[in-house]
Amino acid sequence: MGLSLSRWFCSRTADRPPFLSSAFLPLAVPTSSRLAVTLNSPPVSPGDSRSHWSTVHRSLHFLLSPCKQEATRSPAELSSDGVRAEIGVKSGLHVWEVVWRPEHRGTHAVVGISRQDCPLQSSGYNVLVGADSQSWGWELKTNQLWHGGQTLKLYPENGSKRCHSEMAADSKSQSSSSSSAKMAQTPLLIPERVLLVLDADAGTLGFVVNGSFLGVAFKDLPRDVELFPTVSSVRGGACIRLRYMNGSTRDPPSLMALCGLSIRQNLGQKRLKHMDKLPLPPFLQRCLASSH
């Protein structure tokens, strides 16, 4: 059976669709098997309570939809406003999806996590998530990481290095050094869908963009403390949607989960619907179908 399965994969290599081009693909960091299995597992029900914004822990300028998955900031002058998830986590690996259209961000658009007592409103236009020791945030417009009221570094780090490499290459073919410097300082445009990856066991926070894990953004997060997905905005009309995707315990993935992941990765997204044609026993085909 192993030989026939290998021949089946090889005979279809030419049919495999090419990877979608993305500015983030060269910046991708290899994931652990635990994270890879979690990212490739079916999402939980959209109505899961872990997908809800908190009706209590929010600025009054944020209004929630009836399903509590969508938070919209009302127009308000000289105010920075935040909202956090209704349910936090103390352990395990967890992935949330945050959908925030770029044209609805404005300045100081921050995605991250916070402890329970993180301030969720302040006067003026400021970064709110990451403004103190209670929260950690990624400012999407500038790509800066914030914690303790100060910027820490650009994220992803390789994005900055790549821009500098492009600048050096362009300086050989262009006489204007000022245009090259401007290119080096241009932040990456973050698309509307961002996955927030919190490993409460390891104390790390990272992000996935366009299917690419960009590495650890924050480490040494507090252990055994409840942490909540949190966003802050200064733009009137900003609409931010939250969805809990999946999670796992600190236990390593099962061998069946790893085998299923390997098969799905070799198949590719466009061929997953043809899993029933794999030369596998019906029981294994059902296991693959249920895991997808």
Automatic annotation (TrEMBL):
Q: State the Gene Ontology BP annotations.
A: proteasome-mediated ubiquitin-dependent protein catabolic process; protein ubiquitination
Instruction: Specify one Pfam family.
Output: SOCS_box
What are the boundaries of the signal sequence? none
Please, which domain of life does this record's source organism belong to?
Eukaryota
Pathways involved = Protein modification; protein ubiquitination
> Which protein family is it in?
Belongs to the SPSB family.
Protein's name in the database: SPRY domain-containing SOCS box protein 1-like
Protein species of origin: Pundamilia nyererei
Q: Which gene codes for it?
A: LOC102205548
